[in-house]
């Protein structure tokens, strides 16, 4: 039923749309994508059946080498960036060099969230045009879309004299630290480009991601006076660390909640007389007694924001709240940068218009921006300050990051065709 519904949806869009405005070359590219679609699905299955959980370094590289061979065949210069020093597999880059049109960066990732010992290991073809498998949706399907868009352009003779860089990172799901090293090559690729297209999973056939929120971490460490509980609130005893943690969290809530695209989440809290907290594993232990005023609390959380300005203003407010301590307590807050924001710039909006025009000309209707509050962080954000960018050009499906992860094959070919025509127009501007 899903396959029939989607086919009917695409057919109605085609019949109700204005006359198609595609050039002869664009029609050729679309035809080539169609011709190669069976090969695309076969390669998808081969890639999905190789476990590439982020910490399976050998598996991530094996998937990288599978794609490297494909890019080599269409004449792209390829290189593997080793990140073994960061306990990560590395990244695959492929490039064509030239001067015509826009310089385009295509971004995907090789790793998945499913570890080597996961029972979810193989691609399975389901009825009605759906396939199930680890990374089908996030995001090996997207990698196949960008690859076969380029294969069609190569077969049409359109990659000559164009600069296109493909960046397939190997640690998107669990980024290597420090980020200054693990994202160095991606950032440099962005600095040499005009446009970035991200192939994370699609949010809908007629939606793309115009903006993404950035993410960062924060940790509050609180100290109180360890005393008998009979003296709590008295001079020299004070409120204790647990009450101070409650004040801080309540003030965060009352002061910061409700701002557009801003969220802040205390994910774990540990408090008592004696505590220990292992940050890498997010685990800890606490000892305390009801008749002892709590001496220590640790709160670990995240902060998501739509711009660097919003991030810095929010951090300043959080610092001020943490500094306003209850009697006989002290607290400090530490911030940790992770993914930067990808704000909805005018350049991004202009790029979306170009993509929407491609969709309309192909008979599939306009494309609109997806709500950035409904998407997480992604690698495209690392280059957002250098280029116009949109994301979410990957495969349509459901259940990403779960054992029910699927993609829909009824739209897979059309998504690849739209991507190929968009790249063709960009490199011929």
Plain-language structure description:
There is one protein chain. The chain is of the alpha+beta class and 429 residues long. It folds into two domains: 296 residues, Aminopeptidase (3-Layer(aba) Sandwich), CATH 3.40.630; 126 residues, Alpha-Beta Plaits (2-Layer Sandwich), CATH 3.30.70.360. It has a six-stranded mixed sheet with strand order 1-2-6-3-7-16, sandwiched between helices. A four-stranded antiparallel sheet has the order 4-5-18-17. A hairpin with a 4-residue loop joins strand 11 and strand 12. Helix 2 crosses helix 4, helix 2 packs across helix 10 and helix 9 packs across helix 10. The two termini are 41 Å apart.
Strand content: 15-25%
**CATH H level, superfamily name of the largest domain:** Zn peptidases
Task: Compute the number of helices.
Answer: 10
Q: In total, how many beta strands? A: 18
Largest sheet: 6 strands, mixed
Query: What's the average pLDDT?
Result: 94
CATH class of the largest domain: Alpha Beta
In the CATH classification, which architecture of the largest domain applies? 3-Layer(aba) Sandwich
Stated plainly, the CATH topology of the largest domain is called Aminopeptidase
Strand arrangement within the widest β-sheet reads 1-2-6-3-7-16
Please trace the helix and strand order, writing H or E for each element. Answer: HHHEEEEEHEHHEEEHEEEEHEHEEEEH
Radius of gyration: 25 Å
- How many structural domains in the coordinates? 2
Shape: elongated
Q: In which range does the helix fraction lie?
A: 25-40%
SSE-based structural type: alpha+beta
* Unreliable sequence segments: 1-5, 11-19
**How many angstroms separate the termini?**
41 Å
């Amino acid at each position: 039923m899903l396959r029939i519904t989607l086919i009917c949806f695409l057919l109605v869009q085609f019949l109700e749309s204005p006359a198609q405005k595609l050039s002869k070359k664009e029609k050729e590219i679309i035809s080539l994508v169609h011709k190669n679609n069976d090969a695309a699905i076969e390669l998808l299955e081969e890639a999905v059946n190789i476990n590439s959980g982020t910490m399976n370094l050998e598996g991530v590289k094996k998937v990288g080498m599978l794609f490297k061979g494909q890019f080599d065949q269409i004449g792209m210069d390829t290189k593997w960036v080793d990140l073994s020093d960061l306990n990560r597999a590395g990244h695959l880059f492929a490039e064509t060099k030239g001067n015509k049109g826009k310089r385009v960066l295509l971004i995907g990732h090789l790793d998945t969230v499913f570890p080597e010992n996961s029972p979810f290991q193989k691609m399975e073809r389901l009825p009605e045009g759906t396939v199930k498998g680890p990374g089908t949706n996030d995001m090996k399907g997207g990698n196949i879309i960008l690859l076969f868009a380029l294969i069609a352009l190569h077969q049409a003779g359109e990659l000559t004299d164009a600069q296109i860089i493909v960046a397939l990172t190997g640690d998107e799901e669990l980024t290597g630290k420090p980020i200054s090293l693990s994202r160095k090559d991606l950032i440099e690729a962005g600095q040499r480009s005009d446009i970035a297209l991200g192939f994370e999973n699609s949010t809908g056939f007629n939606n793309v991601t115009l903006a993404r929120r950035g993410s960062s971490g924060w940790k509050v460490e609180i100290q109180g006076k360890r005393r008998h509980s009979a003296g709590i609130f008295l001079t020299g005893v004070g409120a204790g660390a647990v009450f101070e943690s409650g004040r801080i969290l309540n003030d965060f809530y009352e002061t910061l909640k409700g701002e557009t695209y801003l969220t802040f989440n205390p994910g774990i809290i540990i408090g008592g007389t004696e505590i220990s907290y292992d940050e890498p594993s997010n685990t800890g232990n606490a000892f305390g007694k009801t008749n002892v005023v709590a001496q220590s609390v640790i709160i670990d959380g995240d902060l998501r924001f739509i711009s660097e300005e919003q991030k810095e203003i929010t951090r300043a407010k959080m610092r001020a709240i943490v500094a306003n301590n209850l009697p006989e307590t002290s607290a400090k807050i530490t911030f940790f940068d992770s993914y930067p924001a990808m704000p909805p710039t005018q350049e991004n909006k202009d790029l979306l218009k170009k993509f929407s025009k491609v969709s309309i000309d192909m008979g599939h209707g306009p494309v609109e921006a997806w709500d950035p509050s409904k998407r997480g962080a992604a690698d495209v954000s690392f280059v957002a300050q250098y280029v116009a960018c949109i994301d979410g050009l990957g495969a349509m499906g459901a259940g990403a990051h779960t054992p029910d992860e699927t993609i829909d094959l009824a739209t897979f070919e059309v998504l690849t065709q739209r991507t190929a025509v968009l790249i063709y127009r960009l490199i011929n501007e």
